[in-house]
Specification:
The protein is built from eight helices and eight strands; from the N terminus they run E-H-E-E-H-E-H-E-E-E-H-H-E-H-H-H. The protein has 204 residues and is α+β, with helices and mostly antiparallel strands. The chain has two domains: 6-69, Alpha-Beta Plaits (2-Layer Sandwich); 75-169, no CATH class. The strands form three sheets. The chain has a four-stranded antiparallel β-sheet. The chain has a two-stranded antiparallel ribbon with strand order 5-6. Strands 7-8 form a two-stranded antiparallel ribbon. The longest helix is centred in the last third of the chain and has 33 residues, at 171-203. It starts with 5 loop residues before the first strand and ends with a helix.
């Protein structure tokens, strides 16, 4: 059985207890700087528990998360490799609108921020992730293309956003929804034109 791996993430504590102040010591201990105030280190549960003692002593804030629920650095590349644009466009998974390839964003359907906790909501969505056939949060099955507006509005929300993401993550369903939407728009336009002709005919 493969040993579970965890990530210890350290950020600023209260008052003057900052990671910047201890940056050299953190680097010596094997921590990697992640930008802002965050430093991380990965390993077994026993390993990260030993490392967290330093954070406790220095009164720094820390969290421990199983690495399969941590955002990877290459999830975007992985999604683009599997999803090529059609005539330079993608369809937003959430709203269905056409998006230029240069403007598409890659989103985690079940947000990383939800799964890093150990509460009932996190446990529920970890089960959902498993039902989706995903081994980790960065699995291609938990990634989707999104327009900037939807990505900004969704952020770490779940509920209807996860439902839409799961329903339309497959290209076939996104294309089907787009064709149906275009057909409805065409029907409305034709109906308005015919109605216009009808009114003009009556006035004659």
């Amino acid at each position: 059985m493969e040993e579970k791996r965890y990530q210890l993430r350290i950020t600023n504590g209260s008052d003057k207890h900052t990671t910047y102040r201890y940056r050299k010591a953190l680097k010596r201990r094997g921590f990697v700087f992640r930008g802002g105030t965050a430093w991380t280190i990965d390993g077994s549960k026993r390993f990260v528990n030993k490392k967290k003692r330093y954070a406790k002593r220095k009164k720094l804030t820390f969290t421990i998360v199983e690495t399969k629920y941590v955002r990877s650095s290459n999830y975007r590349d992985k999604w683009f490799e599997k999803n090529k644009p059609v005539f330079g466009f993608y369809l937003c998974t959430y709203c269905g609108r056409l998006v230029r390839a240069k403007n598409i964003t890659v989103d985690h359907i079940i947000p990383v921020a939800i799964l890093k906790y150990d509460n009932d909501t996190a446990k529920q969505y970890k089960k959902t992730l498993k039902k989706m056939g995903c081994k980790n949060v960065n699995d291609i099955g938990n990634l989707c293309g999104s327009c900037f507006r939807c990505n900004e509005e969704k952020k770490s929300k779940t509920g209807k956003w996860v439902d839409k993401g799961r329903r339309y993550r497959h290209k076939f369903f996104r294309i089907g929804r787009f064709i149906l939407k275009m057909a409805l728009i065409l029907i409305v336009i034709i109906a308005l034109v015919l109605f216009g002709f009808f009114l003009s005919g009556r006035s004659d």
